[in-house]
Design a protein that fits this description.
single chain, 2 domains, eight-stranded mixed sheet, VC0802-like, 13 helices, Carbamate kinase, alpha/beta, about 425 residues, about 25% strand, globular
């Protein structure tokens, strides 16, 4: 059965990383194998800056950024291929020329359309180089344009997949002819041929789309960490790896802000019970983490999630009336319109409390709107702690010395809001 591998920008950030990728793939001889690749390193950020420069006019800033992008990719080619750069250099130069042409053509169009027609070149460039290097290393490959495989609507920057059309386009990629299929993450295309992008975590989603349509055996996402953890290792000094959790548990963790796999990636895999494994490309012997159907291990280890720079709003009707369904509908509708997500929602007879990410450009208009019709109390610079599968002793230990400003709890999840000043530095998970 087909395996789908996904490699992010960190795993191909330069020529040395691409060599390591080739060495890794040489160890996996099973076919069929589909490899989904992101843009190199911070290329997407560079393309977004190039986009803004193009929309302001093709001045020196635009030309300098385009030339930097060209030089960086050609430097990787030269480092990999030495004097044998000819065909690969020609393909990279052709892509840079086409990127420049598209900026000229689309700079006057709406930004989301312009974005999708140009930012996609990061993945096209990276896969061109990676595919050529795998061939150089003795592995037969087939380069595929994801814009011709993943069919979407024209909702640019957050395109929706046409699953039936996509399944028809990818049919046959699971035949075993000895070649590795190399394609791009994050991008797709409309039936009319316009480029689209898939939004947040789009490359992981691309891998899931292809796996779903091919009835793959497994998806492996290769990262610079060995797997998934029960807390952010940068904030918790004794975070533990979760070697196995269920789709549902992973979705819960992602919903509450954990840096795991985005729910839209898990959905297509869960539908067909395709496991997702997270492995380290730096240490192939490290035990991986697997997300699948098995729920037996979900409650064995509590998981902790910190979300900082939070704002707590306590909203009350001005006429001292109940916070009934109609008022909650009105308030939450405004939240949706503002494009904000509430990490905590708690209600009482005469109040509704919301803990929100502090995005000023979205938060301030929302607060102004609510203040016009409700009495609003506000606290800024807060930290939201979410704990899955906690007992009372753990919650008491985590809250010691901290002032709880809001709290919500159900059978599986406990949430508390603390002043940010009381939550700095490294945390320790009590035994």
């Amino acid at each position: 059965m087909t395996q789908v591998f996904k490699f992010g920008g960190a795993s191909i950030q330069d020529a040395a990383a691409i060599r390591r990728l080739g060495e890794l793939l040489a160890r996996f001889r099973a076919r069929p194998l589909v490899v989904v690749v992101s843009a190199m390193g911070k290329t997407t950020n560079a393309l977004e800056a190039l986009l803004e420069a193009a929309r302001e006019g093709e001045g020196d800033d635009y030309r300098d950024r385009l030339e930097t992008l060209r030089r960086e990719h050609l430097a990787a080619v030269e480092s990999l291929f030495g004097t044998r750069t000819g065909p690969v250099t020609e393909r990279v130069e052709a892509l840079i020329t086409e990127l420049d042409r598209r900026h000229r053509r689309h700079a006057g169009r709406e930004r989301s359309f312009h974005y999708d027609q140009t930012v996609c070149f990061g993945e096209l460039l990276s896969t061109t180089i990676v595919s050529a290097w795998l061939e150089e290393a003795g592995m037969a490959t087939q380069w595929l344009d994801a814009r011709e495989l993943v069919v979407t609507d024209d909702c640019h920057q957050a395109a929706n997949v046409d699953w039936q059309a996509t399944a028809e386009r990818v049919r046959g990629l699971d035949r075993d002819d000895g070649r590795i299929r190399v394609t791009q993450g994050f991008i797709g295309g409309t039936a009319e041929g316009a480029s689209t992008t898939l939004g947040r975590e789009g490359s992981d989603f691309s891998a899931a789309i292809l796996a779903h349509c091919l009835d793959a055996e497994e998806v492996t996402i290769w990262k610079d960490v060995p797997g998934l953890f029960n807390a952010d290792p940068r904030r918790f000094d004794n975070a533990l790896q979760l070697e196995q959790i269920s789709y549902g548990e992973a979705i819960e963790l992602a919903w509450h802000g954990a840096k795991v796999i985005h729910p839209k990636t898990l959905g297509p895999l869960q539908q067909k019970a395709i496991p997702l494994t997270v492995r380290s490309f730096q240490d192939l012997e490290a035990p991986p983490s697997t997300i699948g159907r098995d729920t037996r291990f979900d409650t064995q280890t509590p998981s902790l999630i910190l979300r900082e720079a939070q704002t707590l709003l306590e909203i009350r009707p001005r006429d001292f009336a109940f916070m009934d369904e109609a008022r909650q509908h009105d308030i939450l509708g405004r939240l949706v319109e503002a494009g904000l997500h509430a990490g905590l929602i708690d209600s009482g007879a005469m109040r509704l409390s919301l803990c929100l990410d502090g995005h000023p450009e979205r938060l301030e208009p929302l607060v102004a709107s609510l203040c016009a019709d409700y009495a609003v109390a506000r606290r800024d610079d807060l930290t939201l702690l979410t704990v899955r599968h906690a007992d009372d002793a753990l919650l008491a230990a985590l809250g010691a010395g901290r002032d709880c400003l809001a709290e919500r709890r159900n059978a599986d999840t406990a949430q508390r809001v603390f002043p940010g000043s009381q939550c700095r530095g490294t945390w320790h998970i009590p035994a």
